Amino acid sequence: MPRWLYHLPQPTWVYSSEMTDAEKAENPSHETTGGFLRENDIKEHWSKAFAKATPEDIELTKAMPAFDAEVFLEITGIDLRDKPVAAQCDGREVEIDGVVYVLKAKGSE
């Protein structure tokens, strides 16, 4: 299991004295409990936890059973989709049917 997944921040306890007026109106039970649990932006939590991931952890994440990079992106906001690698072709030679062709980047003269 990738270690960075254990670093997901938990909801934050906010004491009544630190609550905004809007938070007090939305959470009237703060008077009884002395505060409330603030649910923070989950994608922000994922991003903070992922910042602690090592390259090995990232590979372990991709290797998890049934891992789907598109679903992972939708849930976490973290893009682990494989990126196409641009191959340098300028100047390389290819032989086809005895004819040697020199490759050039598209759009170059």
Extract low-pLDDT stretches: none
Helix content: 25-40%
Strand content: 5-15%
**Number of H/I helices:** 5
Give the class from helix and strand content and strand pairing.
alpha+beta
Q: What would you report as the Rg, rounded to the nearest angstrom?
A: 25 Å
Mean pLDDT reading: 88
The protein's oligomeric status is single chain
- Major sheet attributes: 2 strands, antiparallel
- How many E-type strands? 4
Q: Strand arrangement, largest sheet?
A: 1-2
Q: What's the end-to-end separation, in Å?
A: 51 Å
Task: Please provide a written account of the structure.
With 109 residues, the chain is an alpha+beta fold. The protein has one domain. Helix content is 32%, strand content 15%. The chain has five helices and four strands, in the order E-H-H-E-H-H-H-E-E. The chain has a two-stranded antiparallel ribbon with strand order 1-2. Strand 3 and strand 4 form a beta hairpin. The longest helix is centred in the middle third of the chain and has 9 residues, at 42-50. The chain is elongated. The chain starts with 11 loop residues before the first strand and ends in a 7-residue tail after the last strand.
